[in-house]
Amino acid sequence: MTTTTNLDHISHEHPLILIDDFDASSIAAPLVCGVCEIPIIGVCHAYTCSQCSFFLHKRCAESPKQIKHPMHPQHQLGLSTDYNHLVHPDPSNSFLLPRTYICCAGCTREINLSMWVYSCKFCHFEMKIPYFKSPLTSYQFALCMRCAVIEPVLGHEGHQQHPLTLLRRRAYFWCNACGTEAWDISSYTCLTCHYWIHSSCAVSPHTIKLRVHEDDTLQLIYSIPEIYRRFTRHCPICRLGVNTENWAYFCENSGYFVHITCATALLSSGKNVIKTEDDDGQTYPDLMQFPLASANPLIANLIAEYQSGKPANPTMQKEEGENETHDAVIYHWSHRKHPLILLEELKNADNSDNDESDINNHIDEMLICDGCIEPISTELYKYYYGCIGCNFFLHTSCASHLPLQSSPGKCVFDPQHTLKLQNNNGHDITFCTTCSTLTNGFMYKCIEFFPQTQIDLSCCLAPRRLKHEYHKHPLLLRPSTSKNCNACLSETNPTFEYGCETCSDIQIHPHCALSFPKEFSHRWDSHSISLIYPPIYYKGLRYCELCELEVNQEAWLYHCRECDQSFHPLCIRQPHKVKLGKTILPSTHNPHSHTLTLRMVDKNWYSERVHKYWSCSVKREGIIHASAERDFYFECAGCNYQACLVCTRLHALSQSGSHHCELEVSRSH
Question: Which of 55, 192, 264, 540 is most buried, with most CB under 10 Å away?
Answer without folding.
Answer: 55
